[in-house]
Structure prediction request, 788 residues.
Amino acid sequence: MLKTYIKLAYRNLIKDKAYSIINILGLTIGLASSILILLWVQNELSYDTFHKNAAQIYRITSDFTDSKDAVGSAGMPAGLKEQMPVIKNTVRLRPSDPVLFETNGKKFQEQYAFYTDPSFINIFSYPLIKGDPATALQQPDAILLTQAMATKYFGNENPIGKIIRKDNTENVIVTGVLANIPANSDLQFDFIMPMASLARSNNDLKNNIWDNFNFWDYVQLDKSFNPSPANLTRLENQINNIFHKHSSTVKASFHLQSLTKIHLAPERLGDMPGHGNTQYVSIFFIVAILILVVACINFMNLATARSARRAKEIGLRKVAGAVRGQLVIQFLSESVLISFLSLFLALIVVHLFLPVFNELADRKLSLDFFNLQLWLSLIGIALFTGLISGSYPALFLSGFNPVKVLKGNVKAMGGNLLFRNTLVVVQFAVSIVLLVGTVVIYNQLKFIKDRDPGFEKANLLYMPMTGDMWKKQQALKDELIQSPLTSDFAITSDLPTDLGSWTLSVSWDGKDPRSQMSFPVMSVNEGFTHTFRMQVLAGRSFSSAFKSDSASYMINEKMAKTMGLTANTAIGKSITLWGKKETIIGVVKDFNFKPVQQAMEPLIMTYNNFGGFVMVRTQPGKTNATIQALSKISAELNPAYPFKFDFLDQDLSKLYKGEQQMGNIFNLFAILGIFISCLGLYGLSAFMAEQRTKEIGVRKVLGASVLNLVFMLSSNITRLIVIAIVIAIPVSWYAVNGWLAGFAYHINVSWLVFFIASFGALSIAWLTVSYESIKAAVVNPIKSLRSE
Prediction:
């Protein structure tokens, strides 16, 4: 029997090729889109789940009066372990500054290196494919590197025991090779070095400091611990009590953040780069479902449009003895066959376009065709899609009255009109929501790109100070001043796009003693405000003409407001920073040193006398010449290190890379969703034209023009789209404002956005319907009436 149903389904597909192609195309696009989105969603949810001890690993985070931080202290983990038996193991991590490695005459400046404790290998599941896990991080001059780095530095040689020259000052020994770090790991690194190496120069490690927050602290809890919310709260309270016994002055509370939830949790101060966004995961999961729903609706409408052609077949089958159940199974078998055929084609599409999608999403997604769970999921999706999309046509078509059908009264069995119209309304409500989302995302990204960050971001390039440059700063300044290409420069401790230094140790006269805020601190020299074209609201910038400036402070406008002052009244007031009470000499207009998702924060600027980054403003049309001039200066003063530079506006763009990727992905699937909706609308217009063939012929005989007939056939669709607009506008308004709420600075969504999306949907609908309407309107009425 099943074989017969499959044969019948196959014959019906071949019999009406146009119908089958449109149907399969819609489902193929819907399934391929959903599979790609769900692969991305699954990847986002899989971060750090590969660790064997993932369920027991937690990061210690800290909350202050005005900030939530990702970092902890050097002394806390070991101290907590001593007093809390539930803590089985601990590990600390700290990212290294860019480091120069050299071997076999090859030099590379590396960005992704960590210092960590020997327990790192036991707590995390980063496989050590060469070396002894028990001793790999025990000696201070050890280093672990990934497979990719081992190949980069040593080719096919065994790297164990090999020497690497570090920063032209010391040798380190390769004691282990790690497997390449999975893309779905929140920790991304190429090198691991022992914390004992950093302890030789780091004061926090030397003195086991508890109240200076510069490390990522992780604890591994005992497997017997039940991580219920109540138990975790009790554990956090215990951590807080132990901390405050060591540091009674710091007003902070600590929390245990599950390792597997770090990636999608709200970003914290000092967090790792490459953070995810749980809101985007939810958005795309909903989009995947909506696209699949629209594809199923498309299938239903096309099957309904074809109902008149199947009516006599159904009537004859019923007269011949077929019961309704058999007909339902027959129609469901057709829809399931189409669904599985669409799944096969969708997998081909996914395989072909996955590299493009990975480029768009900046991910390393893959389809593992040997994964049984994947196949079960895909088969389940295809079966569910086939049954859902075929359910209404099966129940509707199988219910035809054979007597009425064979008498030719097909119009009377046009199906549930309300249900069909509801499907169209749902389709286009979804399409309008997607269109509104596309317009809003585009405008917000344009707003971010065009927004004034408080300084002129164009034509600013920077060179990190490395190696000998730190010891030759006066010579560096002299060289920069001598060349007109580089004379407009500043030296800053941090990049404005990556300000990583902040402190709790700030006070002023009148500060509320109960308040404890963390303040970003940036060191700049006298060229800062001029090079950045920054507005000084009151006072003045640092100047070499005033020797006392080396002990003075500049602040931003927000800091003055935090102190209860204005820009003018702040001048001459004092701030105590790290125990040093000095005078405010200048207040600059607020400028962005954080993404626009976050509100402007107070900033303290000290005089830079130790280095960091050389920021140079290039002259129009002379960027390449400026780069060459900087390269020459670097080669003269710092020959052992490779010359590196970058552009500040590119760094600003990277801050919004996630939003840009989200926008690109959303736009792509919005277009595909609208295209599928148009296929469904085409199905309905074909159904309407088919059902009203005789009426159209009579109207033409009585003198109706083609335009009159097209208007008549389109009017019902127009009413449905208007209803979809009424439903979609409040839904889309709520959705886009929820997304924009994640930005401290964002556009205001005007009525024009909803008008554009609504008019766009209506125009697309008219264009889609017009083809079938015109085709029906131009048919010779004699032919139409004869066919009836």
In short: Residues 324-361 form the longest helix (38 residues). The mean pLDDT is 85.
